[in-house]
Every structure is written in C-alpha cells, then in structure tokens.
Amino acid sequence: RFSGIDFEIIIIDDGSPDGTQEVAQQLEKIYGSDKILLRPRAKKLGLGTAYIHGMKFATGNFIVIMDADLSHHPKFIPEFIRKQKEGNFDIVSGTRYKGNGGVYGWDLKRKLISRGANFLTQVLLRPGASDLTGSFRLYRKEVLQKLMEKCVSKGYVFQMEMIVRARQMGFTIGEVPISFVDRVYGESKLGGNEIVSFLKGLLTLFATT
C-alpha cells in the first residue's frame, strides 16, 4: 500500500469448500472493492480458464499470479517488480532451484519428483529458466494474453508450457529465488495419474516445440 504502485487483488475461487470466499468478502469490506475483487466461479474449471477469467478484470499493465494459500509469500512481490524494471522483462518467474530459493514442508518423495521433473524438462526442452513447474510469476498483461492463446496443456504441464512457449515466441524471462512453503491446511495431491500426465505433456512439448 505504501509502495506508490497502483494495484488490485483479484481472487478467483472455484467453489472451494475451505472458506476462501468468506475471507475474501471480509477483505473486500476492509480494503474496498476497488482493491479486492472477488470473482468466484461455481465449480472447479481448471487453472488455465482461471487465468483467462482473472484477466478479464485486470486493469493494470502487469499481472502477478500466485497461490492464495500462502505457499507463495507476498513478500517476494517487490523483488519481482524490481527484477522486471531492472531488465524490462516480459516475465519474471519465481524459482525454487536457484540462489537462495528452496522448498519447505515437502517429504523426500515429493522433492525427488519435483527435482526429477525439472531435470527431465531441462534436458529435453532447454527452456533457459531454472523452475518450470512453479506458478508464482509476474507477466506483462499482453504477453500473458498471447501465451494463453497458444497454450493447450492442462494440470501440472501447463506452467511448463507457458515458459517453453514464451521462449519460443521470443519473450524475455527473469528469475527471482523464492521460498515455497507447502500449505498448512488442505492437501496437495500429486498421484500416479498426474505423473503420467506430466510425462505425456513433456513428450508432446518435446515433439512440438
């Protein structure tokens, strides 16, 4: 609020049973509906469509996308903004795998899966970015719109395709080390189906980019 940067917070909730909407409504009363925009949807329709839905209401030139469960800490947002200004980047991506970035709250299996997925991606796609499966990012609004028109993946592969397509289309990418803290409430699901979907998506991108 004291940064001098004009901002709005758009909250997209897909009918989650965890009280997200009620909390957002309270924040809206405190900070005003010009700063907190709650834009719910009746049911879970996927991350990509949530991006498109949110973009309809975004009035700024840049969009920061983050999880609302505090896995992504807001304290990193000023660093994203500084990085963007420093290099005039089209995208600034939070990275867990560079500098003092890291992951907290995951068991060894989850860490190995994430590292393995990232390593495979680096070898096959050579994307020029160190963390492809994270979703804490800053985009120029028009760049995000162009990427959404090109991306076709769902689920775990979607974030990876966004970076790969960005490189393919000549957009510039900066990185900021972040600490990712696994959610305290609720459960992160990463089962066999998601891993198979990721591998299929990775091979599709390898064949088409």
From TrEMBL:
<dbReference type="InterPro" id="IPR029044">
    <property type="entry name" value="Nucleotide-diphossugar_trans"/>
</dbReference>
<comment type="similarity">
    <text>Belongs to the glycosyltransferase 2 family.</text>
</comment>
<keyword id="KW-0464">Manganese</keyword>
<keyword id="KW-0460">Magnesium</keyword>
<dbReference type="InterPro" id="IPR001173">
    <property type="entry name" value="Glyco_trans_2-like"/>
</dbReference>
<dbReference type="Pfam" id="PF00535">
    <property type="entry name" value="Glycos_transf_2"/>
</dbReference>
<dbReference type="GO" id="GO:0035269">
    <property type="term" value="P:protein O-linked glycosylation via mannose"/>
</dbReference>
<feature type="domain" description="Glycosyltransferase 2-like">
    <location>
        <begin position="6"/>
        <end position="147"/>
    </location>
</feature>
<keyword id="KW-0808">Transferase</keyword>
<dbReference type="GO" id="GO:0046872">
    <property type="term" value="F:metal ion binding"/>
</dbReference>
<dbReference type="GO" id="GO:0006488">
    <property type="term" value="P:dolichol-linked oligosaccharide biosynthetic process"/>
</dbReference>
<dbReference type="GO" id="GO:0004582">
    <property type="term" value="F:dolichyl-phosphate beta-D-mannosyltransferase activity"/>
</dbReference>
<protein>
    <recommendedName>
        <fullName>Dolichol-phosphate mannosyltransferase subunit 1</fullName>
        <ecNumber>2.4.1.83</ecNumber>
    </recommendedName>
</protein>
<comment type="function">
    <text>Transfers mannose from GDP-mannose to dolichol monophosphate to form dolichol phosphate mannose (Dol-P-Man) which is the mannosyl donor in pathways leading to N-glycosylation, glycosyl phosphatidylinositol membrane anchoring, and O-mannosylation of proteins; catalytic subunit of the dolichol-phosphate mannose (DPM) synthase complex.</text>
</comment>
<keyword id="KW-0328">Glycosyltransferase</keyword>
<dbReference type="InterPro" id="IPR039528">
    <property type="entry name" value="DPM1-like"/>
</dbReference>
<keyword id="KW-0256">Endoplasmic reticulum</keyword>
<comment type="pathway">
    <text>Protein modification; protein glycosylation.</text>
</comment>
<comment type="subunit">
    <text>Component of the dolichol-phosphate mannose (DPM) synthase complex.</text>
</comment>
<keyword id="KW-0479">Metal-binding</keyword>
<dbReference type="GO" id="GO:0006506">
    <property type="term" value="P:GPI anchor biosynthetic process"/>
</dbReference>
<dbReference type="GO" id="GO:0005789">
    <property type="term" value="C:endoplasmic reticulum membrane"/>
</dbReference>
